[in-house]
Hints:
Elements: E1 6-9, E2 19-22, H1 33-54, H2 60-68, H3 73-111, H4 118-124, H5 126-147, H6 151-166, H7 181-192, H8 196-211, H9 217-236, H10 238-241, H11 247-267, H12 281-289, H13 293-305, H14 317-324
Antiparallel strand pairs: 1-2
Amino acid sequence: MGNLIKVLTRDIDNNGGNFFLDFENAQPSQSETELWEEVNQVLTEAQVILEDLQAYRGAGEEIRQAIQSPSVEGVQERAWSAVVPLVVKLKTFYEFSQKLESSLGRLLVVLTSSASTPTQHLEQKQALARQFAHIMHFTLRFDELKMTNPAIQNDFSYYRRTISRMRINNLSADAGNEVNNELANRMSLFYASATPMLKTLSDATSKFVSDNPDVPTENTTDCLSTMASICKVMLETPEYRSRFTSEETVLFCLRVMVGVIILYDHVHPAGAFVKTSNIDMKGCIRVLKEQPPSSVEGLLNALRYTTKHLNDEATSKQIKNMLQQN
Length: 326
């Protein structure tokens, strides 16, 4: 992601906090180390997941031949042999979403405690804030790759049809046992979503709020809106943006900004788009629109189609128009 990035944010919360937020090199304090190391293991695996997803090519040709020649046993076997290891990989992706959900919840516990303001939390626990940002970046990147790869749905649908048709429970150790019917049902729900990782984290954030009634909802929403504000400042201020050494740094900030907006919109009772929202939605959308369209179309679509409150009556026509325009 380039060299050290430090961003000074001004007047982000009511205290008018001024601080540098190091999204690249912040190191954990002694009290943060245990959690940081646990989350870091998940983030390390996240890189492997992205590489595997990027390399995912699917079994489209084998499936087409199997459908065209339903009575040729050898063709059917080739398709099945091609699909089973791919479904095992899809299972790995799905199981990783559960690890990510757990890590997000543990970070939220620390970043939303009532001991400090959101800005103070992010300032004092920069290493954990950085990990939170990396989770959001991974989530948006995973969903971008998944949305542009129809082979995933096609492979899994073929697998389920074949299982059903052949009534296989224990066809082989690496097929029936790897993905039984119950797991296949859960995976099917996961992959049916256009943005499965984002949906997982949105649901997890909402669950975190409902499961922790002693933590005021605004602690969570303020943490998310503060993170969105920091990213927006990083992107729209030439002084800070000039420190970015690669386009990937810009994309990192854009994905984090969009991710936390979506989480905020799912958790805040009124959502991210109302006038009273703590997020400057017009400013955030403007920042997105200033980027090359090819790099942000997936992020704009995430705001269009995975937010909860965009189409509410309380959302201004200007915001709706900004998102509708290419």
